Every structure is written in C-alpha cells, then in structure tokens.
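User: Structure please.
Assistant: Input sequence and predicted structure:
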Amino acid sequence: MALIGRGKELIRKSGPDPTFIEYRYADLLDIDSRAVFMLELQRILDEVEAFNFANSIITVDDDTFMEFLMNNIRNEVISYQAHIFRIINSSYKTLSEKVESL
C-alpha cells in the first residue's frame, strides 16, 4: 500500500522531535517544516484508518499474521532508531568539530 510507504518516508524526513532534550545536538528541521510533515502524516493515517483493516478478510491463520506483524513492527522500530542515532551522531560530530576549531 503506497500510503504506508509515504507515511514511513514522512516520519524519516521529519527527523527527531525537537521538544526532547536528548536531541539537542541534532541538526533538526525547522519546527514549522516538521509540523507540515506531521500534518501530512496524520492525513495519511486517517486515510489508512478509513480502509478499516480490522474487518478485512485475512488469508493466513491468525498466529502467522500476528507473527509477521510483530516482526515487521520490530524491524521498523529498530531501523528508525538507527536512523535517528545516525542523525544525532553526525550532528554531535559536526558540533564537536566546530568547538575544536574555536
């Protein structure tokens, strides 16, 4: 489903939430730019919810579906965490280089 892929792209583009202090070293998007991404993401989530997946017919047994679902969620969470850590580490390195040059 293209909406889910677009949602994942928006989450990565928006980057870490600037309201959390542990992201203070990161090169963050402007809050207004991030808000635009988050509004678009909310619109996509509303469209996905309108599909009413809960009442859809599933062609695999319940246990297999749940196993695949949990595995995919785990993989996506780990991938996103790694993405955020790369942003923070890169920003911290840039900040350290600036401090050393001063």
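The CA atoms of residues 58 and 65 lie 8 Å apart.
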